[in-house]
Amino acid sequence: MNSGGRSLKILAVSDEVDARLYGNGSSVLDRTRPDLILGCGDLPAYYLDYLVSQFNTPMYAIHGNHDAAPGTSAADDFQKCGVTWIGNRTVRTPGGLILAGFDGCLRYNEGAYQQTQVQMQATVRRMMPWLWLNKLRYGRFLDVLITHAPPRGVHDQPDLCHTGFDALVWFLETFQPRYHLHGHIHKRDTGRTQVGSTDVMNVYPFRELEVDAPSDS
């Protein structure tokens, strides 16, 4: 990513309502104001809405495997909480960052946001034309990938539910985002791993980082 001489502060959240961010006892609210919030899934709509309102900043998010299925009454709140949902698509933020996102985890039951390894491969392929369009327009495919599940073999776990996606490994090798932020793995000591040119981070329950603003922003 080419630097535009300034940095963007990002707050990434996933999987757990954290008291350091939520409610009267929150401490992060007093010391930081992010330029962007990224949601990596499995968080209630009231929490997402609270973060958007308190920080007064845009949030882009994907769905986790425990989120209510589209079209259900329980899912309505997700559409009202001020979040831009980017599951299975790519967007460019007001700060110039190019994001892409994929929902859910490896299929282990009939949940709405679950896919087999083969299905995820097809999902990734469907995004490819948009990534190439980014490359033509901006000189790069994307800056940050956000997912719920991790790549296969990076921060994942041996049980079926928490096994990572093979297609995400291929995605990182092919499109080389600067960052890949994921949730789903409830281990606070799982930090960050370099995969090629990509910094893969488990954000559970939240993580703060700064990235260079693109020169085309």
In one word, what is the shape?
Answer: globular
Most strands sheet: 6 strands, mixed
Structural class: alpha/beta
Kindly report the name of the CATH homologous superfamily.
Metallo-dependent phosphatases
Question: Would you kindly provide a written description of the structure presented here, covering whatever features stand out?
Answer:
- The chain has one domain: Metallo-dependent phosphatases (Purple Acid Phosphatase, chain A, domain 2, 4-Layer Sandwich).
- β11 and β12 form a beta hairpin.
- The mean pLDDT is 93.
- It has 217 residues and is of the alpha/beta class.
- The strands form three sheets. Strands 5-6-9-10-12-11 form a six-stranded mixed sheet, covered by helices on one side. Strands 4-3-2-1-13 form a five-stranded mixed sheet.
- The longest helix has 22 residues.
- α3 runs parallel beside α4.
Topology:
Layout: E1 3-13, H1 28-31, E2 36-39, H2 45-55, E3 59-61, E4 83-85, E5 89-92, E6 98-102, E7 105-106, E8 114-115, H3 117-138, E9 144-147, H4 166-175, E10 179-182, E11 192-195, E12 198-202, E13 206-214
Parallel strand pairs: 1-2, 2-3, 3-4, 6-9, 7-8, 9-10, 10-12
Antiparallel strand pairs: 1-13, 5-6, 11-12
Helix pairs in contact: 3-4
Label this structure with key terms:
22% helix; 217 residues; Purple Acid Phosphatase, chain A, domain 2; alpha/beta; 13 strands; 6-stranded mixed β-sheet; 28% strand
